[in-house]
Amino acid sequence: MSTNSGFGDGNTLPLGRSSGTSTVHRGELDRERNVSVRDLRKSFGDATVMNGLTLEFEDNAVTTVLGPSGTGKSVLLKHIVGLLEPDSGRVDVFGKNIWSMNENARAEMRKRFGVLFQDGALFGSMNVFDNVAFPLRKHTEMMEEDVRDVVWNSLREVGLEAAANREPGALSGGMRKRAGFARALVMQPEVVMFDEPDSGLDPVRTSLLNDLILQVHEQHQGTYILVTHDIETARKVSDYVALVWQGTVIHYGPTAEAFESDDPFVQQFLTGSSAGPLGMD
């Protein structure tokens, strides 16, 4: 079964990935991955945010990180891209501990990442085209003619060619997300991270953005890491789901396995029940 993306490209998409049929197996823990986090610990003052978190992200798959507010999901993303240094533990990216690198090496590593922030994080002084072109102009020596070709391809991929000359303030929330997604893709990253991509979107636009994420991943592959509170987003786009609570991973596996779990916390969080170990604190 398939559905149209709703962005005018006419492509068809799989409705989701909850079957857990990926050919990548969880047992291959000794295999080098694009991103792996081991025994990560991080505190801010008296608040422990990461408490020994270990997670190996499958390559060429979409992994969604779920969990209550304040469990460190966004902090995890900042560790992965080298914006936060752990108190202990390690983050390996493309086979190397990022904190054994010097800052120049970390900067080069970040060029292999794309990030979609909650509101797109567009530069208000630039139109959509220049926002998307910014990473290419800043980080490469690409000729301007080639930059324009790449940017138009990225805008076409997310259905925003007609909005190329608009300022961010003239865009809807969904359009800002798509512009941010185009910018995240423009350097052809091997890892793409999404920090609550559904934040601020209504259910219809959330569903359309989910379709777009699926469509782009099907075309380009890569390691996609998505943080969200939205259960339907996790069900629809994920190959794998990780649930984080109190700074550690309490469940990780194929999406279907998570939704069939009999673990009390997993059940409560995925169903939204008031009965269970998760309270208001």
TrEMBL record:
It comes from Haloechinothrix alba. Residues 35-271 form the ABC transporter domain. GO terms for molecular function: ATP binding; ATP hydrolysis activity. The keyword ATP-binding applies. The keyword ATP-binding applies. Signal peptide: none annotated. Keywords: ATP-binding, Nucleotide-binding, Transport. This is Phospholipid/cholesterol/gamma-HCH transport system ATP-binding protein. Residues 1-31 are annotated as: Disordered.
